[in-house]
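Q: I'm writing up a methods section and want to include an example of the input and output format. Could you take the sequence below and give the corresponding predicted structure tokens, formatted cleanly so I can copy it straight into the document?
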Amino acid sequence: MSISRLQAGPRAIALEIAAEARAEWGFATDIIARTFRAHRELASGARRLISETVYGLIRMDRRLDAIVDELADELADEPPDEPPGAGAYEPAKAGAYEPADLGAAGSGSSSISKTARSSPSKS
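A: Here is the clean output for your methods example:
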């Protein structure tokens, strides 16, 4: 804990403590106690502000994690949507998009060429 924390104010100290608790997977109570022991000159109002802010940030973080998990579960349960315009493509001329003769590599016909052959011409 450095002197720069004191100069930054209680809110900055609270943000640093919350970030440290999240990064190190430490207990916030231990980190807060360690900070308060290192900075005995913090007034009781500043200590109260720091504690309330840290615990509020932790509660909000957990609340947001729960919301994201719930939304992710809902999205996983929904069937995937088709991309926009799927199945709506019709070539201008029947057979206009036939694949070129590629020898053995192009022996299989593509779905575009099948669609082009089977769609009626608009002429």
